[in-house]
Design goal:
Layout (H helix, E strand, L loop, with lengths): L1 H18 L3 H17 L1 H11 L22 H4 L5 H53 L7
Helix pairs in contact: 1-5, 2-3
């Protein structure tokens, strides 16, 4: 299960890194951003504070009103850098490292599964040899 989970996570990371700049992803992330602004504006304020950005496509200081800028978030809305650009930079900077780390973990788990399989087979074979020895008419216990 761990091996398959590691493979799925690694594939997801690679997919995000390759597709973050496509229009489909940009639109999807923008739609999600708008929904969060509408329903949980304080969460967006926290993101803007942590990432030192505002808005999604444009900084809120340029378009202080709009569905991409949460209300009651004046300090964070003054940031100039749009959050989409910050997000893309973050993904480009760190997801490559995360991919290689995930790939290394997958390789480790793969060899662990192979080793476990070989170990289990050797134990079974050893048990069969011991049982065969006890059944052998030439085997005597001292």
């Amino acid at each position: 299960i761990l091996l398959f989970s590691a493979i799925a996570a690694t594939v997801f990371i690679k997919d995000v890194k390759q597709n973050i700049k496509t229009e489909k992803w940009k639109k999807t992330l923008g739609d999600i951003w708008v929904k969060i602004v509408e329903n949980h504006p304080q969460e967006i304020c926290s993101v803007q504070k942590a990432w030192r950005c505002s808005g999604f496509y444009n900084g809120c200081n340029l378009i202080s009103t709009g569905s991409y800028c949460p209300k009651n978030c004046e300090v964070q809305n003054r940031n100039v850098e749009p959050c989409y650009a910050t997000m893309v930079n973050y993904v480009q900077d760190y997801f490559g490292t995360a991919f290689w780390l995930g790939l290394a973990i997958c390789i480790f788990f793969f060899f662990a599964v192979i080793f476990d399989f070989l170990y289990c087979c050797s134990i079974r074979r050893k048990d069969k040899v011991i049982k065969a020895m006890y059944k052998s008419p030439t085997f005597e216990m001292h």
